[in-house]
Amino acid sequence: MAASPMLDSAFSVDTVTYEIFSVLEKKFLFGYEDQKLFLPGKHEIPVETLKSGENITGKVRVLSIDGGGATDGILAGKSLAHLEAYLRKKSGNSDARVADYFDVVAGADTGGILAALLFTRGKDGRPMFTADEALQFLIDNRRKIKPSAPAGIFRRISRSSKKAEKLFRLTFGEMTLKDTVKPVLIPCYDLSTRAPFLFSRADALETDGYDFKMTEVCVATSADPTVVGAVEMRSLDLRTRILGVDGGVAMNNPTAAAITHVLNNKHEFPFCDGVEDLLVVSLGNGESDCRHPNPSAAELVRIAGEGASDMVDQAVSMAFSHARTNNYVRIQTTGFDAGKYLKNSKSPANGEDLLGIAEEVLKHKNVESTLFRGKKIIQNTNSEKLEWFAGELIKEHERRKTSILPTVIFKQASPRTSSATVSTESSY
């Protein structure tokens, strides 16, 4: 009788665990005198390397993308385009993608859409979009994703929601959370439970009760509660029902959620014990310079999201402490006033305007949160920080090719099936 998929999965985990701890036992308990160590599918590892004290498990690479902010996601999109260009230049691989160099991505609102575009698997097995293509997608479809809402517009709520849904259905088809190349985390706020809900690839691989179509995930995380209202959706098996609204309401800056996920997910990240085992880049979208004495409901939602993003940045900076400079990068601009960048400041900024503004912002000097001292401006520009971080990602990518132990052990599954298997991807 053939073994069940669940038994196969359990056997795979046990096999990997056995191999890992056999190596640890030989190295640290009884010594290891062989001149070379061989592991299936790996290079030879000289014993001198084992004794050198080098980090043999590497660092987990985390990408976090804020909600829309003052640039409707375009600053983060442009930052990703710069990062991918640097990765291609430094690696010598003209087809390098952002997803190749990260182990997990978290994105809220338009940040969640960028995460979905960059990490959902295409027909050729590669990510569906390059960073440039994802940025252009936001520019071209900005008003379908984020329709404006002047007074009396609520009669158009249903139509606005349908436009976004149609756009995402044409983009993702029947793809679900299982169809991503790496772990993905995308939040929304569930009005039915009055609590945040985190769409997670890891949860989707465990049960269809947490697997959702990427179309619905993108609609829910970007659903402006002041315009579109809540989006009702169900999991693939119809057992889980949520009323989702804007992921920015739940966690506009999902960096902390991503870090928590990694540190507590020992199945996929078995050797990640603290922030010193992480490489994190967090991309903001600009904090608006709102000085109206009576802000609208939409402006209040945005201000609340931006304030929460700033608090998360402060908390993460404190958590990284001495490792902050080398392990954590935040790209953000504060006091953002689009009007001063426009030729006609009385007209609202369009997508191309915001793209030009994003280019200017990346030339600005980077700002870091400092423990108990607020923020400080450093000498490097935002673009230079991204270039430096691309180099660190490539170093980690190369380190894994000779790593004795896997940094990540990703769960894998055939699309739209409930069984999960385990894949050791230490060279990713």
UniProtKB/TrEMBL annotation:
Q: Which UniProt keywords apply?
A: Hydrolase, Lipid degradation, Lipid metabolism
Please tell me whether the keyword Repressor is annotated for this protein: no
Gene3D superfamilies noted in UniProt: Cytosolic phospholipase A2 catalytic domain (3.40.1090.10)
Query: Do you know which Pfam families this protein is assigned to?
Result: Patatin
Give any single GO term for biological process: lipid catabolic process
Enzyme nomenclature, EC number = 3.1.1.-
The record's annotation in PROSITE patterns points to: PNPLA (PS51635)
Q: What class of enzyme is it?
A: hydrolase
Domain spans labelled PNPLA = 63-259
Single GO MF descriptor: hydrolase activity
UniProt-listed InterPro entries: Acyl_Trfase/lysoPLipase (IPR016035), PNPLA_dom (IPR002641)
Q: Where is this motif: DGA/G?
A: 246-248
Query: What does the UniProt function comment say about this protein?
Result: Lipolytic acyl hydrolase (LAH).
The free-text domain remark for this protein reads: The nitrogen atoms of the two glycine residues in the GGXR motif define the oxyanion hole, and stabilize the oxyanion that forms during the nucleophilic attack by the catalytic serine during substrate cleavage.
Concerning its family, UniProt says: Belongs to the patatin family.
Extract the PANTHER family matched here. Answer: OS03G0784100 PROTEIN, PATATIN-LIKE PROTEIN 6
Q: What is this protein called?
A: Patatin
**Organism expressing this protein natively:** Protea cynaroides
